[in-house]
Amino acid sequence: MARVWLFGKDVNTDQIVPGRYAPYMLKNEDDLRKYPFVEARPEFASTVQPGDILIAGRNFGCGSSREYAPLALKMVAIGAVVAPLFARIFFRNALNLGIPCFTADLTDVLHDGQEVELLLDEGIIVTAEGQRIELPPPPGFMREVWASGGIVPFYRTYGRFPGEAPA
Amino acid sequence: MAAQTLSEQILSHAAGQVVKAGDVVTVQVDLAMMHDSLSPSIIKVLHQELGAEKVWDRDRVTVVIDHVAPAASVQTAEHQARLRRWVAEQGITHLFDVGRGISHQVLVEEGLAQPGMIIVGSDSHSTAYGCVGAFGTGMGTTDVALVVATGRTWMRVPETVLVRASGRFRPGVSAKDLALRAARILRAEGATYAAVEWHGVDFLSIGDRMTLATLSIEVGAKAGLVPPTGAAAHLMRIPAWLGVQPGASYMWEIDIDLDQLEPQISMPNFVDNVVDIRDVGQVAVNVVYLGTCTNGRYEDMIAAARILNGRKLAPGVRMIVVPASSEGLQQAASDGTLTTLLAAGATIGTPGCGACIGRHMGVLAPNEVCLFTGNRNFRGRMGSPDAQIYLASPEVAAATALTGYITHPQEVM
């Protein structure tokens, strides 16, 4: 089972990883895994488990272009992020890194700390009580990028960008 | 052909076919910008993950050391030393090293950013290039690495939100107030995935247009464009196909009457948490910080110096000025603006991003209050998560420095 981490709206990238903890500023880049939500939710980095999911309000990931914000979430193996609206750069960065993002508002459906199971391929969250929540299917190009494991392996495999006609 | 927004015109031109909002396109990029903070990771993706040996075009990939400039630790100094070696190995033409200034300001001053271009930067405030009518957009490490490797990127053609200004600013009111007023109406997510066009601002300087363009990202925008018209555009090389077309389709239109506009204050901890200055109440500040790509230019220093002229900062208030570029600093030094600021008690930092990202040159302690001319007041942005950041114009910054509490410029003008 995965744990739900519930966040409000307008979670910005300074909350996800403050600029002071960028890899550029760290002696050991792997230490980035210690800093997701270091100030917004200090207990997060030490207790998050692989596969846990983030449920957030509107405009998740607004602010800076720093890819190390979603990278830090990838380093702690977040299973998915679900929010009704994602900030554009965060959404691209997460897609590029292969982090599943689903556009849905579950902030009133799930609660913080709830135990759930994410069936990624089916796009379904199942709660411990057996409730099945269908996530809206992402566009085809996103599934292609996820299937490749991110934009770099996608580009290296196909030699083109998503949505671009094959050469 | 249906009338097009500026973004549709630029992306159609780059795609070589007529495109409209909602289409997904792959386009040639005209200029790429990478800064010191993300260059190490961009170079890693470029060589180790993408397997590219050379950048796509050594004249079009620009490198700027502005985020921690000068280096604040051995760690950042080493990164910058490696970056300089890499620039030399790649034969990159345009490296703007420590002290030249903030990437966006510098690329505009150098004439590298031009109307109609597509410019991708490793910095969210790359919307700045809209000040010259370019489609500037910020992307993360991997997207920028792909641009640097291939000269291309992909994106969805954005819808456009139109901000239409009318009238003229009253004394003590400026472009920052227009931008914050727009953020107050549009809110932080109002232009997500969209572009913002700023109309009715032909009378503004390029610098003031950059204030509008940089703040476009704070309402979620992919790009923030000012039409390249008016006196400030006279010297620009404007493509014949670029210009406002009557009948273009906008997803949201808002009107702002500059004649009625009061100084706007963005309250902690969200940029769109904006009120008229008279509704702020008595807020004492410890630090007044004038700088950033949003309001650290020569004209911003002039605006502050006019108010500070011959007077002293309020006791206990620190004022830190970090010019956006060396060119602005030189202008301010040569015409006495700098002397006015120093005589008032302000201090000057190396041109660059300064404490905007909370890394050096004036980070805030817990419970300190900062009046900041920058673009973000998120919790922890400039240092301690328990500091408070209020965003405002250079005019409000100067007035506040004189009294020690957030002050309407007209009270001291």
- Quick one: overall form of chain B? globular
Distance between the termini of chain B: 51 Å
Shape of chain A: globular
Kindly state the number of beta strands of chain A: 7
Compute the number of helices of chain B. 12
Uncertain spans of chain A: none
Strand order of the largest sheet of chain A: 4-3-2-1-5-6-7
CATH class of the largest domain in chain B: Alpha Beta
CATH architecture of the largest domain in chain B: 2-Layer Sandwich
The biggest beta sheet of chain A, please?
Answer: 7 strands, mixed
**Which two chains touch over the largest interface?**
A-B, 45 and 50 residues
* Tally of domains of chain B: 2
CATH class of the largest domain in chain A: Alpha Beta
Proportion in helices of chain A: 25-40%
CATH topology of the largest domain in chain B: Aconitase, domain 3
CATH topology of the largest domain in chain A: Aconitase, domain 4
User: Per CATH, which architecture of the largest domain in chain A?
Assistant: Alpha-Beta Barrel
Number of helices of chain A: 6
Structure description:
The complex is a heterodimer of chains A (167) and B (413). Chain A is built from six helices and seven strands. Chain A is globular, with a radius of gyration of 16 Å. Chain A is an alpha/beta fold. A seven-stranded mixed beta sheet of chain A has the order 4-3-2-1-5-6-7, covered by helices on one side. Chain B has twelve helices and 18 strands. The termini of chain B are far apart.
